[in-house]
TrEMBL record:
<dbReference type="Pfam" id="PF02353">
    <property type="entry name" value="CMAS"/>
</dbReference>
<dbReference type="InterPro" id="IPR003333">
    <property type="entry name" value="CMAS"/>
</dbReference>
<protein>
    <submittedName>
        <fullName>Class I SAM-dependent methyltransferase</fullName>
        <ecNumber>2.1.1.-</ecNumber>
    </submittedName>
</protein>
<keyword id="KW-0489">Methyltransferase</keyword>
<keyword id="KW-0808">Transferase</keyword>
<dbReference type="InterPro" id="IPR029063">
    <property type="entry name" value="SAM-dependent_MTases_sf"/>
</dbReference>
<dbReference type="InterPro" id="IPR057206">
    <property type="entry name" value="DUF7884"/>
</dbReference>
<dbReference type="GO" id="GO:0032259">
    <property type="term" value="P:methylation"/>
</dbReference>
<dbReference type="Pfam" id="PF25371">
    <property type="entry name" value="DUF7884"/>
</dbReference>
<keyword id="KW-0443">Lipid metabolism</keyword>
<comment type="similarity">
    <text>Belongs to the CFA/CMAS family.</text>
</comment>
<dbReference type="GO" id="GO:0008168">
    <property type="term" value="F:methyltransferase activity"/>
</dbReference>
<keyword id="KW-0949">S-adenosyl-L-methionine</keyword>
<dbReference type="InterPro" id="IPR050723">
    <property type="entry name" value="CFA/CMAS"/>
</dbReference>
<feature type="domain" description="DUF7884">
    <location>
        <begin position="13"/>
        <end position="85"/>
    </location>
</feature>
Length: 409
């Protein structure tokens, strides 16, 4: 009966199930092909109960492990058959009922959600991120770029979209470890305020600004975006909006509009869904990695922008850049896995690699992309063509960036 259930799930490709007694069961045929090894036969019952949650939890517990092709092969097989993995109607109703509660991110809950992920262990992030500690999608404008180079390319691209002038006041909502704020101050002679809720990010960013001697132009605040006041020429937010939660979408964009000067520009860089809204976020990711978050569809974001009166001056969709970024992060994580196991335990390492490889698969074979929403208070403050974004960066700037990477790497 259980195997017939798997037959309904696997309509394309092959799943090889390896049992503890060394027997192997093949489900389906052809490519893609993936393998799972079961610690005990009864693990199947657990996996059938709620595949999207139980597969991750059982992997963390060591109840199953992948064979040839590793986790990536299993995720590829999953996305080849994703339409067959619908949850039961009862689970759908329960999750829909809880959705608004889970995403109602009050100031207190937002702080708790941030600490759950970003305050795990600073060394973890320093080991698997680039030297600038950029924890968001890189921009591989050249296929031969390293991760560090692609993260600097992202900063250049974002800076161009902000149309910065020397002396501009810039707000960075969700500034992370401060890399983008420091980049903008160094390369564009602007004054930057960065907001974060993370203890580790705040401490690291402040230390770095002090070390680099730019505290007169860059300051970091441990503050919720809803509590901030001021007037800014430009507002940027990279990788933060997906933590806002649907009930707060309008609040977020209203605050951006309130803080922007009449000639102000904004760039919102967020993971997005290349399809219609869903009733529930990915359960395992929400529970173990990013509590309180939600990845928006464009149809959920556009009305909020419209209600502010701001102009959507440009929209760019990055495809596959995040898949490559996550692949680089996983390579670096695996290179230091023994260190992380000693510091954080084997179960954590399994959770983290399931997260990195699972997200890589979603961006490669699934529906996730990155949205770049460029906003302006008026429709005449941003150039009317995209030419300004793709002019060659002066060689002197690139040499300076490469030298910085060499010093911080």
């Amino acid at each position: 009966m259980k195997i017939r259930y798997f037959d309904r799930l696997i309509s394309q490709g092959t799943l090889a199930i390896h049992y503890p007694d060394r027997n192997t069961q093949l489900i389906g045929n052809g490519s893609p092909k993936a393998h799972i090894h079961l610690r005990e036969r009864k693990v199947l019952t657990r996996l059938f109960s709620d595949p999207e949650m139980a597969f991750g939890e059982a992997y963390m517990d060591g109840d199953w492990w992948p064979g040839e092709g590793g986790l990536s092969a299993l995720f590829e097989l999953y996305f080849a058959n994703v339409d067959n993995f619908g949850s039961s109607r009862i689970l759908d109703i329960a999750r829909h009922a809880l959705r608004g509660l889970r995403e109602a991110n009050s100031r207190l809950r937002s702080r708790r959600n941030v600490k759950h992920h970003y305050d795990i262990d600073r060394e973890l992030f320093q080991r698997f991120l680039d030297s600038d500690m950029q924890y968001s999608c890189a921009y591989f404008e050249d296929p031969d770029m390293t991760l560090d180079q692609a993260q600097q390319a992202k900063c250049r691209h974002i800076a161009a979209k902000l149309c910065l002038q020397p002396g501009d006041r810039v707000l960075d909502i969700g500034c992370g470890w401060g890399g983008l704020a420091l980049y903008l101050a160094r390369h564009h002679d602007v004054d930057v305020t960065g907001l974060t809720l993370s203890d580790d990010q705040y401490d690291y960013a402040c230390e770095r600004a002090e070390r680099e001697g730019v505290t007169d132009r860059v300051r970091f605040l441990q503050q919720d975006y809803r509590e901030h006041d001021g007037e800014y020429d430009a507002i940027v937010s990279v990788g933060m909006f997906e933590h806002v939660g649907r009930p707060q979408f309008q609040t977020f964009f209203d605050q951006v509009a309130r803080l922007l000067k009449p000639e102000g520009r904004s760039l919102i860089h967020t993971i997005g869904r290349n399809g219609p809204p869903i009733e529930d976020t990915h359960g395992w990711i929400e529970k173990y990695i990013f509590p309180g978050g939600y990845v928006p569809s464009l149809s959920e974001v556009a009305p909020c922008v419209e209600d502010t009166g701001m102009s959507l001056s440009d929209l760019e969709v990055w495809r596959l850049h995040y898949a490559r970024t996550l692949g680089c992060w996983n390579e670096r994580f695996q290179a230091h896995r023994d260190t992380f196991e000693a510091r954080l335990g084997e179960r954590f390492c399994r959770m983290w690699e399931f997260y990195l490889l699972g997200c890589q698969a979603i961006f490669r074979w699934g529906e996730l992309v990155v949205f770049h929403l460029q906003l302006a208070q008026r429709n005449d403050v941003v150039p009317i063509t995209r030419d300004y974004l793709y002019r060659d960066t002066p060689d002197a700037v690139r040499r300076f960036e490469d030298r910085e990477l060499g010093q911080t790497g």
